Amino acid sequence: MELVLFLIAAGIIFYLYKTFQGYLSNPIVPTDRDTLQPQRQQDYVEERPILSPKEKLKRTEYGIIVSILGRLSFADDKSCMLEERLVKGIIDDMAKDSDQPSELYLEIYKESRNDDIQELAELFASETIGQYKKRVKIVEFMFALAYADGNFSQEEEDSIINVAAILEIDNADFNHLYDSFKALNEEYVPLTKEEAMNLFGLNDGFTKEELDSKYNDFFKQKRQNVIDPKNLGKPYNESGGQDLRKISEAYAVLLKEVD
Question: DSSP alpha helices (H): ranges in 40-153?
Fold first, then answer.
């Protein structure tokens, strides 16, 4: 009996030995399906357009304002010296404040002829949330540009109304601006040559250089920096705006007298 048990045990041990030998000579290789491979996350790069310096500037608050003013100026395809000087003045102020070249602002201004003024107003509204006085100031300056040549066209009026509506200018504030500019324009009396010479302090025989010098000095004294926060609450016409129109007309009258 003991011999039988011994033989059985020996057989089992021999079987296990042969099985183990077979495993060592033929190891199980896992398939790709059995192997957990780390998944490499693909890099996702959003394709964004490369903007030129001018396009970047056009999307800023100042760039939007310049576009609005340009769209207004070209609404009636008319311009005058005062309007051009006012635009140059605000562009120079923006260039100085933003440390950006005035030439880029001027290009934006000239290229805004066909821009949608309602879209521009919406962009400006998003830039000036909670800045009501700034919104009113820009609308006021739009009136100043529109009345610079003494002719408030229907196209200019429509543009200003659209912008004011989108900027949510209070009716009382808008009507005050509208009525004050209209009244000053209706009350304006053209200057004579003598009045123009007295205004500039010139005598007969003056030169164009003297006339230009006087005009530039007056313009610098009377022009209001409309983007300066200190001027947000100062009415444009009471801070030199009406004087600018008078000296610009005086300049035009006297320019005809220069040989």
Answer: 53-58, 61-73, 81-98, 102-110, 117-127, 132-146
Do 134 and 125 contact (CB within 8 A), yes or no? no
The per-residue b/e assignment along 50-72, b for 16 or more CB within 10 angstroms, e otherwise, is eeeebeebbeebbbbbbbbbbbb
User: Rounded to 5 degrees, what are φ and ψ at 59?
Assistant: -90, -5
Q: Which of 85, 70, 94 is nearest to 227 (CA)?
A: 94
CA distances from 170 to 40, 88, 166, 176, 186 (A): 58, 29, 11, 10, 24
C-alpha to C-alpha distance for 76 and 5, rounded to whole angstroms: 118
Residue identified by tokens 């200190």 is: 230
Q: b/e string for 183-196 if b means 16 or more Cβ within 10 A? A: eebeeeeebeeeeb
pLDDT tens figures, 12-68:
555 555 554 554 455 555 554 444 455 555 555 566 778 899 999 999 999 999 999
135 DSSP assignment:
H
Cβ atoms of 254 and 206 within 8 Å: the answer is yes
Say how far residue 117 (Cα) sits from the centre of its chain: 12
Residue among 101, 81, 89, 79 nearest 221 (CA):
89
Domain positions in the chain are 53-256
Q: What is the pTM of this model?
A: 0.79
Identify whether the C-beta of residue 58 lies closer than 8 Å to the C-beta of residue 100: no
Query: Rounded to whole angstroms, how far apart are CA atoms 61 and 83?
Result: 21
pLDDT in tens, 161-183: 999 999 999 999 999 999 999 99
Q: Which two tokens stand for residue 15?
A: 């079987």
Tokens 């006012």 belong to residue? 86
Tokens of 248: 């610009």
